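hiii, so i know i said id send this last week but things got crazy w the move. better late than never?? heres the sequnce for the chain we talked about at the cafe, plus the structure i predicted for it. fair warning i was half asleep when i ran it
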Amino acid sequence: MRAIFHPEADDDFIRGLRHYTGKQPELGQRFYRHVNALVAEIEDAPSLFRVYRPPHARRHFRHPFPYAVVYVLKPDYVWVLAVMHFKQPPTYWLHRLDN
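okay and structure toks below
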């Protein structure tokens, strides 16, 4: 199943990428590959990862970066709502469900 990013989730990803690239270009590249790997795992098995928030939003994360990909399943695609840093308020992305 193909993943489609909400425009604000794209912004989340770009902010994280800029942050890590600013620290060290290689770290930015690692972050980019890491998030893309999370998304690929979601695309391969979208219902594998646990429900995180209503209405049936799910999240996928793993170390070393403190970020989660938050998404919902749609009939034909995975709607990525956020690339969420763990220090963000846990519901900051809820308004994106309406778009």
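btw The chain has two helices and five strands. thought thatd interest u
miss u guys!!
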